[in-house]
Every structure is written in structure tokens, then in C-alpha cells.
Design a protein that fits this description.
With 297 residues, this protein is α/β, with parallel strands linked by helices. Helix content is 21%, strand content 31%. It has one domain: 4-Layer Sandwich (Purple Acid Phosphatase, chain A, domain 2), CATH 3.60.21.
Length: 297
């Protein structure tokens, strides 16, 4: 499935807006959300990552990267890693520069699709301890090299997905609907039993305007639908759905005598989540933009 090319712009300190011109009477589009790729780790499934980015390229689908692209634990003073466990291309004295260079080479064919990219706890840790901003350096090089316009996002914020149509005979736009996405790289450890699902009701209370709530960090994958009764200012009662999506990782640490195995952690799912949008013309009160998440696995 192909779709019209999206445009993304910043509309606030912590808000990006991605828009599509829907053209005809009906339209379908998709957005790919991913996080926790840990691209520099030997345990990153780069073939799966490339397959998902290639699918986004085929669909002309915007991509949102929600943090922890890097492991970045192989620095000289980082107790979490060791030089022996690094990929060969990173065994350099300028380790952090190597991380940037390899990412730029890998991402360059897809750079024009990346609408927004936020830091995760691994990136903020490097910034805090080394005063080097991996994400800023990478985005600057990608934008200069490819002409992309990747936006750097904060750890948590908002994304507005907004299909519109151009009014006939003019250049003015008519917004069909806005899908509000509240995102965060994520917090906490997830929990071996609840896997983080318990947080959905907490987030729903302080993110009432979100149609979708999405986060990563804990390397789990699930979707929860919360059905809500709503009331308009003129007293019309209707229902809608708030979707809660947990992004998995592209890293598989469940192998050998790894720290993951020794601490009793379970195997984790890999991949991301697609959000499919469909515009159907309707004369009813039902929203014209239908939202349907699906796994990128």
C-alpha cells in the first residue's frame, strides 16, 4: 500500500505535527513507531530492523524513533560494557564518533522518512557523563548529508497525526481530524508479571486528550484498548477508544551466559508497532479517521 508523502513540522516545544493531503474521497496511511533498537549491540537484530524500515520506505510511511537507538555502553569509563563485547567497527579510540558514523551510514536511505527522533535513557546517560550528544550529532549529519528534516524530540511529548484535504479551487486546507499521540521513551522496569500493563490506567488519568498512548524502554509488547464514554458541550454522548501501545525492542539478550540470563529475565519480543489510519467519508457523528494499531514483527 502506498500513501501520499507526509509533512512534519514542530508546533510546540514538545509537539510535532505530521500531516497528509488525502486527495480523493478515501485515503489510507500508516506510521511506524519503534524504539530500543540498541543498534550498536551485537544482539541487535539488524535484519529485522532493516526489513521494517524497508517496508516504511515502500509505503512512504513516516517513522518515529522513540529512544535508545544506541546501547552506547562501550566507552572507556563505562562499567556496564567492555571493549571485547563491541562490534569490530566500534573498537576505536573515538568510540562515540564511530557510533555516529555507523548510524548515519545505515539510516541515510531512510532519513527522509524519519519524522521525529527522541532520546532514551541510554542517550541521556551519555550526554550526562561525557557531554556528547549522540542524537544531535547524528541528526545534524543526516540532515546535512541527505536533505532530510528530522526533528529532535524531548524524552516525552506529543505527536499530532492530521489528515487534511485541500479545498477545491483554492490552496486552503480542511482538517479532517486530528489523532493525538502522547509518547514517552518510557520509565520503570515493566515487572515480570504485569509487564507494565498496570500503567495504562494511570496514564489514562493524566493523558485524557490522547487517542494513543505509546512508550518503550521495558522491551515488552502489548496493546490495550480503553473504551471511554464522552460528552460534548452540547450534551451529545458518544464513545471512543484510547489505545495504549508498548513498544518492544530489536535487541535479543536471552542467550548464553549473558547478564540477562543470569538475572532471570525472560525472552522478549522484537519489532515495533504500525498505526494505520483510514479516512472514510461519513455524515454521522463517528470520527472520519479510523485508527488501527498492528504489530511490526
Amino acid at each position: 500500500m502506498s500513501q501520499t508523502v507526509a509533512e512534519t513540522r514542530r508546533i510546540g516545544d514538545k509537539t510535532l505535527c505530521t500531516e497528509w493531503d488525502t486527495g480523493g474521497s478515501s485515503w489510507e496511511g500508516s506510521v511506524l513507531f519503534m524504539s530500543d533498537q540498541h543498534f550498536d549491540s551485537p544482539d541487535c537484530d539488524r535484519s529485522l530492523l532493516k526489513r521494517h524500515l524497508d517496508e516504511a520506505l515502500e509505503r512512504a510511511a513516516p517513522v518515529y524513533m522513540l529512544g535508545d537507538w544506541w546501547d552506547a555502553m562501550g566507552g572507556r569509563n563505562d562499567r556496564r560494557g567492555s571493549k571485547s563485547s563491541l562490534r569490530p567497527e566500534y573498537k576505536r579510540s573515538d568510540y562515540l564518533n564511530a557510533l555516529v558514523e555507523d548510524t548515519v551510514e545505515f539510516i541515510a536511505p531512510y532519513a527522509h522518512l524519519i519524522a521525529g527522533w527522541c532520546r532514551g535513557n541510554h542517550e541521556t546517560s551519555i550526554l550526562s557523563h561525557t557531554e556528547f550528544d549522540l542524537l544531535s550529532a547524528t541528526v545534524q549529519q543526516l540532515n546535512a548529508k541527505t536533505g532530510s528534516q528530522i526533528q529532535i524530540m524531548p524524552y516525552a511529548g506529543w505527536i499530532i497525526l492530521r489528515p487534511y484535504r485541500t479545498c477545491q479551487g483554492s490552496s486552503s486546507r480542511r482538517i479532517i481530524d486530528s489523532v493525538c499521540v502522547a509518547y514517552s521513551h518510557g520509565t520503570g522496569g515493566g515487572g515480570p508479571v504485569t509487564k507494565g500493563v498496570i500503567g495504562t490506567n494511570r496514564r489514562a488519568t493524566y493523558l485524557p486528550d490522547a487517542n494513543i498512548v505509546i512508550s518503550g524502554h521495558i522491551h515488552e509488547s502489548w496493546m490495550v484498548e480503553l473504551q471511554r464514554e464522552r460528552c460534548t458541550g452540547n450534551g451529545r454522548i458518544y464513545q471512543d477508544t484510547q489505545w495504549h501501545l508498548q513498544l518492544p525492542s530489536y535487541k535479543d539478550e536471552y542467550k548464553g551466559d549473558s547478564w540477562w540470563v543470569q538475572t532471570g529475565k525472560s525472552p522478549r519480543p522484537k519489532g515495533g508497532w504500525w498505526v494505520d489510519l483510514t479516512v472514510n467519508r461519513s455524515n454521522t457523528y463517528k470520527k472520519e479517521v479510523a485508527v488501527q494499531p498492528r504489530r511490526a514483527a
